[in-house]
Amino acid sequence: MYFSVLVGGPRCSGRVEVLHGKSWATVCDADFDQQDAEVVCRELGCGPPVEVLGAAAFGRGEGQVWTEELQCKRNESQIHLCSKSPSIKHNCSHDNDVALVCSGSVRLMNGSNRCAGRVEVLHRGQWGTVCDDEWGMTDAAVVCRELGCGEAVDVLGNAHFGPGSGPVWMDDVDCSGLESTLKKCRSSGMGVSDCHHGRDAGVICSGKLYKSKHIIIFRCLIVTGIVFRSLYGDGPMNELLAILVFSLFFSDRTAVLHYRKCSMVSISCANILGVRLVGGSHCSGRVEVLHGKTWTTVCDADFDQQDAEVVCRELGCGAPVEVLGAAAFGRGEGQVWTEELQCRGNESQIHLCPKSPSIKHNCSHDNDVGL
């Protein structure tokens, strides 16, 4: 008997793993097509497949790699009902683990990409819309997380992305922001609504949470080299040292496990990036900047929207949603940054921003800024 799961992503997305006997096995990206994807999505109670991703996009699996080719016809209800090729393949490794994004019970329609558009919910086999009554950022945050689309950037009403069709399934939605799916949020009840399609709600999310492992490593390696040159100057030996440290960082098994957990977004590389967010999630928290060899917090009076845009960009976190003062993510430790950041908003890393020459001493950790 075979069963399938999706690992390493938000609901209805992740690395494809199949239970073969008593062991879970990953599947080679060369042996997995759209018909196989439709069966996996159906088996897991998700909507149709949105994207099939190769090259271990949701991280490398462990254990065996499936050695037979799945030959699903598309109409099977479960993966164990699909035919398998008798030929055995041995040329695939975990670098070729296939991943899948299914649409789940929510989707965004009529936007410029799958992470923006009119909010639609699947209920009783039919897609319907959500009313914009009480529709806000916490509700949008649940949708973006459920879709693996990063952070909520904007909420839109009055059928901004065009009127939908079918039922208005949800009205007066009230999410705490922590729910795993929009359908778990409080509302007036599924199908209970006095709304119409001229009030359909919309969402814009920051973008995909997942990235190719190779892109993540390449980006992190570049940042490592940049930080070492700001710390130790130019020269081929410093580049070599940066690469060596990066290699050592990933040779430690604890670091590798941490990398797998973070591989849906750009790798945190906590010891070598020039900025980090602490006390929240990967894309939210107290802003800390690497100054020399020391992490320092930033004063809320000296941090504006343009600075926020640079930090979010450097961390691969889309656009800033909110800048929070008064130690909203807790008080930091050590030094408080004494210079004012003067980013223009288009810099790729925080260390490229100009700094004010004036030194300020009137900030404490009670003023640590969050983002």
From TrEMBL:
This is SRCR domain-containing protein. GO terms for cellular component: membrane. InterPro entries: SRCR (IPR001190), SRCR-like_dom_sf (IPR036772). Keywords: Disulfide bond. Disulfide bonds join 28-92, 41-102, 72-82, 131-195, 144-205, 175-185, 299-363, 343-353. It comes from the Eukaryota. PANTHER family: DELETED IN MALIGNANT BRAIN TUMORS 1 PROTEIN-RELATED, SRCR DOMAIN-CONTAINING PROTEIN. Residues 3-103, 106-206, 275-371 form the SRCR domain. Gene3D superfamilies: SRCR-like domain. It comes from Electrophorus electricus.
